[in-house]
Amino acid sequence: MQPDVDRRTLKNTILLWLVGSFFLFMTRQVPFNVLSSLMNVSLFGIYIIAFRTIATQVSIAPVPLKLLTILLTGLLFFDIFYSLMQQNELGAILRFFVILILLVYSFYLVLPSKAINIFLVIMCLQAVIITLFSIYLTLFFTETSYLPVRFYFQEMEWGDVYTYNSFFYVVQIRGNALLPFALFVAHFYTTKRNLLYRIILFIGSVVAGNFAYIIAMAVFYFIYFLRSNTASRLFHKIIILSIMIILLCVPVYIYYVQPILERKQQGSLDTRSDQAKVLMTDLTTSPANMIFGSGLGHTIEKVTYSRDYRGRLYYELQPLYILNQLGILGFALMSLFLFVLMPLYRFRNKWILFIYFCYILYSSTNPYIFDSNHIGVILILIALQQAIQKKDAMLQIAETHKI
What we know:
Elements: H1 2-27, H2 35-49, H3 51-60, H4 63-85, H5 90-106, H6 114-140, H7 147-155, E1 159-163, E2 169-173, H8 179-186, H9 194-208, H10 211-226, H11 231-266, H12 268-283, H13 287-292, H14 318-346, H15 350-363, H16 372-402
Antiparallel strand pairs: 1-2
Helix pairs in contact: 1-2, 1-6, 4-5, 4-14, 5-16, 6-8, 6-9, 8-9, 8-15, 10-11, 10-15, 12-14, 15-16
């Protein structure tokens, strides 16, 4: 018995180190680009160490989910050969195969609950770094003198840093993608530093400056505020919320939403519209292409007024790019699995489902819904589900002993 306990303890310790490495390397890609490779090594390590757990979870899954898992696995292996027939680059084919296959099996990987605390600490570190950098730019740069900094970030492919008033600098860089998600998780994972985590992550999510983040945060807090045990309490909250919306909607729209929408109309919205047109035009070149896609790692060798797409592997509208690769058949099966069946099966807690929805809401218009960020989200939510179940079980035992 003791050797089994020791083996399990060692396995969990290794998993926690790998989880910490994975999220740390993910957030420290700025300024160390090379860490993206180490991040992938850590992710592979997690799956290797947890292989037996994954196999066990697959074996006890309901038959329909088990069959769909096997079907998607077979489909992705078939797509390797199909993509080679399409003359797609082998490196790009393997990249997307690995991402998608790990996404499928991420729902079967159960991490120790301490992984959540490690994740929150690392994301708080990211939030502190970009917040301090934003303050530094405000104190020592002007609206024109900071431009070399912005151009350097863009040249290094780290992301973007910009301002419209020289009082507030947005820091949109690699490693920010899970800041809002971490904020949502911090509201349901009990730690002594809960309030501190929430404050740091909220500020960091705002500094990250992505409009989709703000929308997801608004939806999250809208629903979170309305949670109530009684109808009368819910009614009072609706009244309070209605008054706040009436008082704030006009100034918030005039001074925040409208300027952002105007800038996006000239920038990112126009780019996304161009991407959608390019991806859908390429998908519909033939009936076979629509059904089976252009293959994993397919690139669109086209230049438009908005962007040079030659050799491009990531798009802001990443779901459309995955649709372009898998076709309607493969994309429909993958979406059914990732966004409907497995979340309903694994995330029994309604708030965890809601957190997952909020992540999908803001990531679906950004290039990290089908990547390692998405895998990290699923792993943390499954660990959170386990932690909540354990806490509820302990409360029930305590109540039983009282009786």
